[in-house]
Design brief:
The chain folds into two domains: 198 residues, 2-enoyl-CoA Hydratase, Chain A, domain 1; 50 residues, Lyase 2-enoyl-coa Hydratase, Chain  A, domain 2. The protein is of the alpha/beta class. Helices cover 44% and strands 14% of the residues. The chain contains twelve helices and nine strands. The longest helix has 15 residues. α1 packs parallel to α4 and α4 runs parallel beside α5.
């Protein structure tokens, strides 16, 4: 049975975790399908992605029983092999969503624990139900967050908060997650809100949106000089080009822009 579905409608890719009977817990097959879903969109013309989970929760993290057998073997080769650029397979499950050229919006409900939270962290934005619960849960099992979490978390959390959540594996409320910057906003219907944001983004200049995502990613990791050069380079690639001129014409004529 498929564990992930991908559909594209009105320029928006809808990616849904479909193991709802298991709270979308991550077994090896589901990890493979999440990676495949992300890779299928790398060259897609979609303008935005909405990532959600069916059933009672977004994702409860690792299906511990399905991964338990791995603990009986030496995990060094499996974890240290860089199978996807600078990442191993488990890291790619999350980081592929950050590498997509278009914005990704995660809709969180129920729980987002462990690997499920790290998957959500790779999205550009996280819309969260007010009653959802989140946790960097790996320490509960004597482990570390290692699905790209330590690339993504320090960009969102103060160091002391990151350490507290990592060391304790405690669950936090959606409201606390919002206060600490772990989620973007709360909404009673996070999927509907995520879809509305995706629709708004899909109506903007596709080239400008992709350039903005690339620039933000560079700005979060590079030095001042490199960022300033990249600002100028990307702006030069947009300014005066047909797509940008269509945006200007649409604004002047008070209509929606039309893109190829």
């Amino acid at each position: 049975m498929a564990r992930v579905s991908v559909t594209i409608e009105n320029h928006i890719a809808h990616v849904t975790l479909t193991r709802g009977d298991k709270m979308n817990a991550l077994d090896p097959e589901m990890v493979d399908e999440i990676i495949a879903a992300g890779h299928s969109l790398l060259d897609s013309p979609a303008r935005a992605v909405v990532l959600s989970g069916e059933g009672k929760s977004f994702c409860a993290g690792l299906d511990v029983a399905s991964f338990a057998q791995m603990g009986l073997q030496d995990p060094t080769d499996w974890l240290m092999t860089r199978s996807h650029q600078d990442a191993n397979e488990m890291q790619e499950m999350a980081l592929v969503w950050r590498r997509l050229p278009m914005p990704v919006i995660a809709a969180l409900h129920g729980v987002a624990f462990g690997g499920g939270l790290q998957l959500a962290l790779a999205a550009d934005m996280r819309i969260c139900a007010p009653d959802a619960r989140l946790s960097i849960m790996e320490m509960k099992w004597g482990l570390l967050p290692d699905m790209g979490g330590m690339v993504l978390l320090p960009r969102l959390l103060r160091s002391d908060v990151l350490r507290r959540l990592t060391y304790t594996a405690e669950e936090i409320s959606a409201l606390q997650a919002l206060d600490w910057g772990l989620v973007t906003e709360l909404d009673d219907d996070p999927l509907e809100r995520a879809q509305a944001l995706a629709t708004k983004i899909a109506g903007q200049s596709p080239r400008a949106i992709r350039a903005a995502k690339a620039l933000i990613e560079r700005a979060e990791t590079a030095g001042r000089e490199e960022v300033l050069i990249e600002e100028s380079r990307l702006q030069a690639s947009l300014l005066g080009k047909p797509e940008q001129m269509e945006v200007v014409a649409a604004q002047m004529q008070k209509r929606a822009p039309k893109f190829d």
